[in-house]
Amino acid sequence: MEKIGFIGAGSMAEAMIAGLIKGGVFQPEQIIVANHSNTERLQELSKKYRINTTHNKISLVKDVSIIVLAVKPKDIKSSLDGLQEYIHDQLIVSLLAGITIDTINSIIGRQTAVIRAMPNTSAAIAKSATAIAASENVTMSQINKCKALFEAIGICKIVDEGQLDAVTGLSGSGPAYVYFLVEAMEKAAVEVGLDMVVARELIAQTLLGASSMIASSEKSPYQLRKEVTSPNGTTEAGINILKEQDVEKALVSCIKRATERATELKDMFTEELVLSHSKLELNGQSK
Ligand SMILES: NC(=O)C1=CN([C@@H]2O[C@H](COP(=O)(O)OP(=O)(O)OC[C@H]3O[C@@H](n4cnc5c(N)ncnc54)[C@H](OP(=O)(O)O)[C@@H]3O)[C@@H](O)[C@H]2O)C=CC1
Ligand SMILES: O=C(O)[C@@H]1CCC=N1
């Protein structure tokens, strides 16, 4: 029986676990999750999904064929420390923003089969927009297996690793931009006199409808927008405010800055790793 193990038990791990179980890709007994120290969180996940949980990462790594790294980028080194000698044929799927395949291999100390993936939290309802990039050591069959796994919880595109920071800025962080927009729409709805509960349903359906139109229509978003906008009508009046306040520029800057931040995370970590290697060399501990 194939098993998948998550190192990190936060929001993204839970979103994937929920989607994988709902989609029947893995049965709960095939899933193991480990975190650093938060026992209550493991109990919560175990109760909610009936999955296996542990603080013992070594036993997890020995037991699974797919290891999903789901810790914050700053914790990559501590999360892999002590596991190096137990990583052999397992496929490593890293969800970490910015952290490169080279960095992961350098922490493990040799070339391993690593796929970097950038999903989003809509994985929980099988609507993730995921992109993956593989290292040279990954076989075609492992790439296909990983792609199928992410396709079971949404869509999955294969990209070059160099494009993953941009994917992070666009669709990894993307749900948060939409929730930010919805928070503003809800605030406005109440200010113009609507009931909050009714407003939330109307907003959710509006987003669902618009997103389905974008995905299914042959028309461009520009054409679709024009079809809503009657000359001198309400939409035009509203859109003029967005133009006056340069909302387009703000959104472009938002995605560029998030992309840049993923690159900063990578640079920060590479620097840290080089520093810790040179300290080891100074102490004569380097191999
Ligand atoms: N959230 C999102 O929308 C997305 C996140 N990602 C990526 O996924 C990763 C996880 O993000 P997210 O789920 O939001 O993070 P969270 O902060 O919610 O979870 C982080 C988890 O890592 C665990 N952890 C920390 N250090 C260690 C360690 N040394 N060994 C084992 N577990 C450890 C924490 O355990 P404890 O609580 O015990 O400290 C916690 O369970 C990030 O790298 C992020 O870039 C990618 C796409 C989308
Ligand atoms: O905010 C973050 O850094 C992570 C990566 C993409 C979504 N959440």
TrEMBL record:
Residues engaged in binding NADP(+): I7, G8, A9, G10, S11, M12, A70, V71, K72, P73
Family matches, as InterPro entries: 6-PGluconate_DH-like_C_sf, NAD(P)-bd_dom_sf, P5C_Rdtase_cat_N, P5CR-like_CS, P5CR_dimer, Pyrroline-COOH_reductase
Pathway in which the depicted protein is active: Amino-acid biosynthesis; L-proline biosynthesis; L-proline from L-glutamate 5-semialdehyde: step 1/1
Domain of life: Bacteria
Coiled-coil zones: none
Reactions it catalyzes: L-proline + NADP(+) = (S)-1-pyrroline-5-carboxylate + NADPH + 2 H(+); L-proline + NAD(+) = (S)-1-pyrroline-5-carboxylate + NADH + 2 H(+)
Entry keyword Amino-acid biosynthesis: yes
Record bears the keyword Cytoplasm: yes
Residues of the Pyrroline-5-carboxylate reductase catalytic N-terminal domain: 3-98
BP-aspect Gene Ontology terms: L-proline biosynthetic process
PROSITE patterns: P5CR (PS00521)
Assigned EC number: 1.5.1.2
Alphabetically ordered keywords of this record: Amino-acid biosynthesis, Cytoplasm, NADP, Oxidoreductase, Proline biosynthesis
Record GO terms (molecular function): pyrroline-5-carboxylate reductase activity
Domain Pyrroline-5-carboxylate reductase dimerisation: 161-265
Subcellular compartments: Cytoplasm
Cellular compartments per GO CC: cytoplasm
Family to which this protein belongs: Belongs to the pyrroline-5-carboxylate reductase family.
Function noted in UniProt: Catalyzes the reduction of 1-pyrroline-5-carboxylate (PCA) to L-proline.
HAMAP family named among the record's database cross-references: P5C_reductase (MF_01925)
Record protein name field: Pyrroline-5-carboxylate reductase
Organism: Metabacillus sediminilitoris
